[in-house]
């Protein structure tokens, strides 16, 4: 294997370039690639910690069928048999693939080809449905193609950046760092954030509109009306390059006739709305970024078209520093769109409802079958499984038992499905636990292919690690199944480069500029050139060999008449509004240092230290109303499920709203899944679920005991009604609570901690009357595990225990302090970790500000080092400096 490899980060849609280096001992070092145009050497906390997430821990290393390990040949035969049987007995629509934006484009292409061309069904959908499918539909309605007009460079050339439903500081951190660097160089750059929550992004913006959840379309309709009345219409552009402007304006004016009506409907001050509108009106170079806060809605498509309408009216599209800009969540959500990985697409931006497109793809693939209608979108697909219409489901590189809404129902559907096949790199995920056939896939560092970022930039992911066990690339697994279904000739692939060339050739086939996605430049790429491929933005054709930074500069769109469409938008409220039983709006989203269901980031001590438990944020007024105290465990209930999580009381939350992170699942917490609480409500046009506006109620949950446990081994905290585990440096940490006081604390402690037969030392302290118990276990004088139990939340500082785990042995005083439950030195308590790179806690930074007079991000970085690493914590430090 080569020593230094240029590859791409596997997390968010920014698509940062990474240089992975291996030394002679096999140690991997990760650095940002200074030559990659997405990040120019920067990496956020997640990207920087990639080296901590490699290795065989937790990996699925052999195929498993019905609980027994077997060889690949047997497993592939069983997959092919299962598919064939269902197709023979119930037709092609009785099988489905549920794939992922984590797949590489080559994997995606082969999966889509097998399902649509050879099984003859369109029942392949992807978790990108949950991420950006509303943007796909909105782009097609407005531009005639799913084409993102802008690139990251436009953010640096803009004079106004509007971030709508985007916490870029946490969700697209390197892009946010680029925006902030640009603002430092150009103080006139204005940033407006539209978000119900005061996120780290909002807190560092020039204007934050803490909008009523779901009222974005009204705000942008109001902007459209305002721009027109202020004479900001670009007459020439609107006349020559668009249609339907008058209808869109008339419809917008119905609900948004003036600023007062908009402000009242959006729950904002009229002055704030007017300030935003004036900024937009007077600034030529405006980029409006939208992300999951807009997309994940039952009217997400309309919201995006309301945004695009404003750019069309002002002609602010297709020129440097301006345009509507969709940020994708996943590393290859865009690649999935290119190959047609969504159930309502065909391939290479062709459609299922066009006979010419179907015939063209069928001919190119030499396919025996081609569906005439679109397949089932994610939520509908699982409904069909529950109804027994889908008999065989193959899940690839995703975890729908956690990530889909109404996830308890998704679990029930998976349990009753006749055959569930899961390809994944990890052995234990909530979905894998429900699989009949488990197929070990390669993962980042081991696999090779391409991904496309939010700005249409295709980059290479390259392998630099040996493949562990019997893991195989997804494209290989799918191709081998295709062989066993009788299609070996059409799936002859030995190398991902062959697949990429075929994909590129299809994109150019009879295209003639009619389809936006065209990478025909690469149709004859040699294997060597594929290896050397440098990051470029499509379209990539003979006429545009270096790529296309922005689209629509010529005023030509991909509609039949070449004109963009205004789309009339009537704002719609979220489908499930709060009511008497569930009086709060429930929002969900990401935390800074975790990715999706934590299968990779949950392995990194550095990343886990930022947020160690699932939590809910609520406003102080709601905390008072529902008698919830900071740090308490609370039960959140909705019509579909419940969860128990830690309460964070913060004015960053809008009164009447709750926020829960999306990452926690059955592997990391007893009951922390927010998607169990959210209904399977979707946008009728895109099928994207409404993850941002559920409804719920909150109540503090009383437990008979609280505790925590540290162990060098991963344990099963049976007997605890609440638990959440997180990785530390050399230990696992468990926060716990229980409804019943055990008869025998010592017995419970030993059942948790004592499973090894090695020489051990055991210490314990028990005060039954006070309901306090402490125990510690030593192996060869090293602290191996310890347990602290009390009647309430007054437990020893965890930082102190962490420090003890870093020591090879403990002296008598330290052992005594463990039993007394009192840290000898209070300075050990640094609080919640803010800077993951240098492990600097919240309390240390606050002390630096208060006591040492550190009054800038730079001063804190210089004296404390916080914020001097990847920079992901800088927005939080700024908020602390501002008194937040
Ligand atoms: S911003 Fe962070 S998570 Fe996203 S691609 Fe870059 S390094 Fe990876």
> What class would the helix/strand composition place it in?
alpha/beta
Estimate the helix proportion, in percent. 25-40%
Q: DSSP strand (E) fraction? A: 15-25%
Tell me the overall shape: globular
Determine the number of helices (DSSP H or I, runs of at least 4 residues). Answer: 31
End-to-end distance, in Å? 48 Å
Biggest β-sheet strands, sense, barrel: 7 strands, mixed
Radius of gyration based on Cα positions: 27 Å
Strands of the largest sheet, in order across it?
5-4-16-15-14-6-7
What's the rounded overall pLDDT mean? 94
Bound molecules: iron/sulfur cluster
Q: Report the count of strand segments.
A: 34
| pLDDT < 50 runs, ≥5 residues | none
Annotation keywords:
single chain; alpha/beta; seven-stranded mixed sheet; six-stranded mixed beta barrel; binds iron/sulfur cluster
Topology overview:
Layout: E1 4-8, E2 17-22, E3 28-32, H1 45-48, E4 64-65, E5 68-69, H2 72-90, E6 95-99, H3 105-119, E7 124-126, H4 133-143, H5 152-157, E8 160-164, H6 168-171, H7 173-185, E9 190-194, H8 200-203, E10 207-209, H9 216-229, H10 235-241, E11 242-243, H11 245-255, H12 259-266, H13 270-282, E12 286-290, H14 292-295, H15 300-314, E13 323-326, H16 333-339, H17 355-365, H18 378-386, E14 392-396, H19 400-403, H20 407-416, E15 419-424, E16 437-440, E17 449-452, E18 457-461, H21 474-484, H22 496-508, H23 527-532, E19 536-537, E20 564-565, E21 584-589, H24 605-608, E22 615-618, H25 620-625, E23 633-637, E24 642-649, E25 657-661, E26 694-700, E27 705-711, E28 722-728, E29 731-738, H26 745-753, E30 760-767, E31 772-779, E32 782-790, H27 798-805, H28 812-820, E33 833-835, E34 840-841, H29 842-850, H30 857-864, H31 874-881
Parallel strand pairs: 6-7, 6-14, 8-9, 8-12, 9-10, 11-20, 12-13, 14-15, 15-16, 21-25, 22-24
Antiparallel strand pairs: 1-2, 2-3, 4-5, 4-16, 17-18, 18-19, 21-26, 22-25, 23-24, 23-26, 27-29, 27-32, 28-29, 30-31, 31-32, 33-34
Helix pairs in contact: 2-21, 3-16, 3-21, 3-22, 4-15, 9-11, 9-12, 9-13, 9-15, 12-13, 18-20
Bound molecules: iron/sulfur cluster.
């Amino acid at each position: 294997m080569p020593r230094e490899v240029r590859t791409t980060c596997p997390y968010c849609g920014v698509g940062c370039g990474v240089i992975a280096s291996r030394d002679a001992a096999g140690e991997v070092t990760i650095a940002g690639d200074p030559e990659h145009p997405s990040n120019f050497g920067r990496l956020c906390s997640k990207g920087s910690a990639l080296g901590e997430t490699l290795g065989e821990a937790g990996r699925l290393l052999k195929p498993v069928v019905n609980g027994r390990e077997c060889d690949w040949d047997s497993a592939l035969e069983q997959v092919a048999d299962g598919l064939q049987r269902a197709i023979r007995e119930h037709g092609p629509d009785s099988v489905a693939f549920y794939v992922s934006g984590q797949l590489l484009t080559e994997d995606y292409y082969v999966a889509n080809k097998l399902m649509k061309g050879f099984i003859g069904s369109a029942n392949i959908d992807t978790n990108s449905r949950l991420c950006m499918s509303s943007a796909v539909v909105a782009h097609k309605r407005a531009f005639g193609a799913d084409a993102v007009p802008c690139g990251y460079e436009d953010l640096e050339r803009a004079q106004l950046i509007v971030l709508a439903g985007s916490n870029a500081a946490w969700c697209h951190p390197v892009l946010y760092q680029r925006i902030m660097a640009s603002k430092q160089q150009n103080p006139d750059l204005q940033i407006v954030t539209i978000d119900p929550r005061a996120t780290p992004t909002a807190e560092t913006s020039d204007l934050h509109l803490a909008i009523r959840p779901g009222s974005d379309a009204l705000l942008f309709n109001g902007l459209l009306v305002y721009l027109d009345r202020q004479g900001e219409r670009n007459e020439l552009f609107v006349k020559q390059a668009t249609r339907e402007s008058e209808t869109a304006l008339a419809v917008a004016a119905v609900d948004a006739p003036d600023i007062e009506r908009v402000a009242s409907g959006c729950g904002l001050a009229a002055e704030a709305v007017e300030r935003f509108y004036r900024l937009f009106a007077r600034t030529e170079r405006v980029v409006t970024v939208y992300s999951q806060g807009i997309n994940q809605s039952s009217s997400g498509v309309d919201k995006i078209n309301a945004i695009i309408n404003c750019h069309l009216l002002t002609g602010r599209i297709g020129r440097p520093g301006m345009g509507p800009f969709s940020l994708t969540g996943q590393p290859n959500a865009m690649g999935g769109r290119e190959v047609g990985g969504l159930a309502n697409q065909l391939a290479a931006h062709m459609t299922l409802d066009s006979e010419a497109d179907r015939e063209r793809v069928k001919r190119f693939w030499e396919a025996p079958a081609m569906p005439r209608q679109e397949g089932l979108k994610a939520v509908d697909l699982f409904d069909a499984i529950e109804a027994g219409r889908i008999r065989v489901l193959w899940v690839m590189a995703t975890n729908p038992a956690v990530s889909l809404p109404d996830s308890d129902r998704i679990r029930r559907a998976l349990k009753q499905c006749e055959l569930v096949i899961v390809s994944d790199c990890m052995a234990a995920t909530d979905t894998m636990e429900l699989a009949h056939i488990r197929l070990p896939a390669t993962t980042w560092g081991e696999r090779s292919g391409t991904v496309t970022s939010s700005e249409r930039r295709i980059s290479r992911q390259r392998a630099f690690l040996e493949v562990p066990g019997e893991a195989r690339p997804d494209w290989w697994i799918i191709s081998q199944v295709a062989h066993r279904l009788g299609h070996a000739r059409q799936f002859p692939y030995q190398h991902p480069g062959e697949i990429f060339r075929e994909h590129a050739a299809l994109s150019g086939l009879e295209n003639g500029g009619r389809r936006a996605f065209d990478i025909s430049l690469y149709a004859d790429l040699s294997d060597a050139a594929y290896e050397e491929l440098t990051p470029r933005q499509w379209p990539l054709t003979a006429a545009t060999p270096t790529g296309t930074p922005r689209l629509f500069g010529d005023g030509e769109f991909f509609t039949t008449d070449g004109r963009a469409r205004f789309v009339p938008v009537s704002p719609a409220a979220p489908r499930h509004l709060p009511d008497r039983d569930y009086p709060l709006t429930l929002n969900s989203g990401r935390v800074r240092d975790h990715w999706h269901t934590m299968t990779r980031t949950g392995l990194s001590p550095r990343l886990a230290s930022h947020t160690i438990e699932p939590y809910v944020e609520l406003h102080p007024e709601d905390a008072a109303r529902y008698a919830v105290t900071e740090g308490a465990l609370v039960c959140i209930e909705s019509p579909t499920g419940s969860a128990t999580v830690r309460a964070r009381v913060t004015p960053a939350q809008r009164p009447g709203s709750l926020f829960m992170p999306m990452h926690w699942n059955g592997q990391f917490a007893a009951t922390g899944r927010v998607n169990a609480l959210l209904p399977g409500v979707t946008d009728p046009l895109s099928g994207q679920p409404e993850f941002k506006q559920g409804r719920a109620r909150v109540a503090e949950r009383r437990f008979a005991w609280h505790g925590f446990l540290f162990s060098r081994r991963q344990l099963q905290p049976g007997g605890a009604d609440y638990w959440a585990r997180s990785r530390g440096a050399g230990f696992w940490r468990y926060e716990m609570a229980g409804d019943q006081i055990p008869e025998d604390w010592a017995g419970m402690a030993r059942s948790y901690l004592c499973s090894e037969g090695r020489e051990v030392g055991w210490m314990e302290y028990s005060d039954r009357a006070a309901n306090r118990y402490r125990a510690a276990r030593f192996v060869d004088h090293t602290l191996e595990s310890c347990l602290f139990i009390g009647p309430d939340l007054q437990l020893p500082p965890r930082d102190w225990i962490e420090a003890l785990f870093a020591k090879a042995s403990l002296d008598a005083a330290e052992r005594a302090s463990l039993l007394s439950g009192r840290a000898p030195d209070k300075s050990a308590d640094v609080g919640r970790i803010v800077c993951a790179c240098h492990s600097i806690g919240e309390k240390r930074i606050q002390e630096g500000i208060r006591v040492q007079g550190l009054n800038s991000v730079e001063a804190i970085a210089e004296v404390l080092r916080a914020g001097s690493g990847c920079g992901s914590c800088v927005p939080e430090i700024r908020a602390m400096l501002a008194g937040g």
